[in-house]
Amino acid sequence: MCKCFSGVTVQGALRSSSIETTEENLLQLKYEPESVWGYVEVHIEQGPVLENVGLPLGSVKGIAGQTRLKVTVKGTQGHAGTVPMNMRQDPMVAAAELIVFLESLCKQPDYYLSYDGQCTSSTVESLAGSLVCTVGEISTWPSASNVIPGQVTFTVDVRAMDDSGREAIIYEFSNRLYHMCDRRSVFCNVERKHDANAVVCDPGLSTQLKSASYTALKRITGEDPGDVPVLMSGAGHDAMAMSHLTKVGMLFVRCRGGISHSPAEHVLDDDVWAAGMAVLAFFETLL
């Protein structure tokens, strides 16, 4: 059960507002697919592409699938000054080697992946434009400057538009991981903590949003804005969940420096206005 810092659960907060979260009550709130025409989401890009091309809006063709792993590397804890280098079972340097390998794998997947029934040339090609891999957390135990750590854990976040390609990357990383750990005489374990399949936006909605963006920008500037970009989203969005209910489309809005999840996140008022005009133009096509 999810709790806030004060110890109050979501269910408890709802109950205090006279909302009972029983399965029966929640099922009554459930949308039926036939009652929903579609879902359109407007969101900042959270990336630098629109700013780079000098346009405030872009249509989204799909949302990358995601896998998150937790990697644990266990070695032999010891004194930093008394254990010779060639006698160490150091999980920190093993983890460092694994992280550097992950970077190479995700930068050059075609170099590492073999072509077989599970991984075709088209799968590898699709990874070239969407694959990103990140180690966002790393921790060591006992975490003292004069101690060879006994254990290191780190997270791996893998995202790609091609789900089979993402699985191929995870398989290759895991396979190489165990070989590297054996060579360094350390124990390694990989846990899958999260999986979400990629979502392809409805082609019709994407085309309509692209056309609506073009119309809005032309109305605002009085000039031909050129071709509106069609982008892939590497970040997860509500549209991923809504895709199980209905067709989805997304419109991206330019943000300064591609920065998000930071106090430096910023969107121009004029770009927000452009997004609103694009949504209006989109609705006009439905009338």
TrEMBL record:
Top-level taxonomic group: Eukaryota
Any GO BP: purine nucleobase metabolic process
Gene3D superfamilies: 3.30.70.360, Zn peptidases
Catalytic activity reported: allantoate + H2O + 2 H(+) = (S)-2-ureidoglycine + NH4(+) + CO2
Keyword Ion transport found: no
The Peptidase M20 dimerisation domain, residue ranges: 65-177
Localisation per UniProt entry: Endoplasmic reticulum
Gene Ontology cellular component list: endoplasmic reticulum
EC number annotated for this UniProt entry: 3.5.3.9
Coiled-coil stretches noted in the UniProt entry, renumbered to this chain: none
Family that this chain belongs to: Belongs to the peptidase M20A family.
Subunit structure: Homodimer.
UniProt protein name: allantoate deiminase
Species for this entry: Solanum tuberosum (Potato)
